[in-house]
Amino acid sequence: MKRIVVRKIWLWVLLAAVLSLNGCVNFNDLKITSFKVDKVLPQGFKSVLWSAYVGVDNPSVEFSLYDISGTIKRGSAPLGDFSAEPVTVKGRTEGTYSVKGSLSLNNSVSVVELFSMLSDFRIEDCTVDLSLKVKPRGGIARKVVMKDVPASSLYRMIKNRLI
């Protein structure tokens, strides 16, 4: 009886070790090599569909980003809520990925105002609330939530390494 209990304990320890190793993925070596806005299409007066190409150098394992959403604010006033479709980045490769999403404007902002803001747009004037889930292949998903992040800092974080 005692041998069975010891075996079960070792089995649980081994299972916990395997699960924790699967969750240990180092994203610090990941680099965003390029970012190019492909399209920005107005959808009525209150939303915009967008797509972009993102170049990624991923020396780590494959991972997926999903449930990507957030709010963009200029000063303290919200401009709108955004979301992006799930993206899977292949492991140990360098490639370009298409990212698509939408931006729903706040009631106080119209598409015409948004396009007129682009002429004097300064990224330093904006903050972002961001929420997403990261799931390494074979690992456990982790939710990342950030509030009131300066958009310029977020841009630098994305350019230098994944969040």
Topology (SSEs and partners):
Layout lengths: L1 H22 L7 E13 L3 E12 L4 E12 L2 E8 L2 E3 L3 E13 L5 H7 L8 E11 L5 E9 H10 L3
Antiparallel strand pairs: 1-2, 2-6, 3-4, 3-5, 3-7, 4-6, 7-8
Can you walk me through this structure?
This protein is of the alpha+beta class and 163 residues long. The protein has helices at 2-23, 111-117, 151-160, and strands spanning 31-43, 47-58, 63-74, 77-84, 87-89, 93-105, 126-136, 142-150. Strands 1, 2, 3, 4, 5, 6, 7 and 8 form an 8-stranded antiparallel beta sheet that branches. It is elongated and about 45 Å long. Residues 10-23 have low confidence and may be disordered.
Jot down its keywords:
163 residues; alpha+beta; 8-stranded antiparallel beta sheet; 8 strands; 24% helix
Mean pLDDT score, rounded? 80
Alpha carbon gyration radius: 20 Å
* Approximate strand percentage: over 45%
Helix-strand string = HEEEEEEHEEH
Helicity level, as a percent range? Answer: 10-25%
Compute the number of helices. Answer: 3
